[in-house]
């Protein structure tokens, strides 16, 4: 079984809680199949491919490109949400062109959306914190945005969740907030 794992950090790194969760998910996937990892980076100089471990740091957005501009505008008004016009088949999986992926596994909703991961292979999404919860905790308490933006974040999240073949959540109370 081949997994495309899209994660925000190197899965071998365990120096904090988020990285540990990434590491344990990566370890679980390696126990049942071959894992090809993409770590999104925002500078061409950070790109690197570790062929032996099948881990690639891929520059996903060039500064001042259309995607860069749209994401920066969106993040001023609606933080948490990411968009990319080129995501999906042929972009995030471009490093391993000859591999047919059985599942795409993503850490965090925003990376699933950015990669359009469901177009590559059935998506298994590790939500960790619901985007709406993160928005309320980080931004709403600081006075950024309001109820309308919170609803937009929820609609965006539900759209991604409904594209997923399966979801991992961080705690049982999140089940009540999911419409998947």
Structural write-up:
This protein is of the alpha/beta class and 180 residues long. It contains 5 helices and 7 strands, in the order βαβββαβαβααβ. Strand 1 (2-6), helix 1 and strand 2 form a beta-alpha-beta unit. Helix 4 runs antiparallel to helix 5 (147-163).
What would you say about this model in short?
The protein has 180 residues and is of the alpha/beta class.
SSE layout:
Blueprint: E1 2-6, H1 17-32, E2 34-41, E3 48-50, E4 55-59, H2 66-77, E5 103-107, H3 109-115, E6 123-128, H4 131-139, H5 147-163, E7 164-169
Parallel strand pairs: 1-2, 1-5, 2-4, 5-6, 6-7
Antiparallel strand pairs: 3-4
Helix pairs in contact: 4-5
Which structural traits does this protein have?
180 residues, single chain, alpha/beta
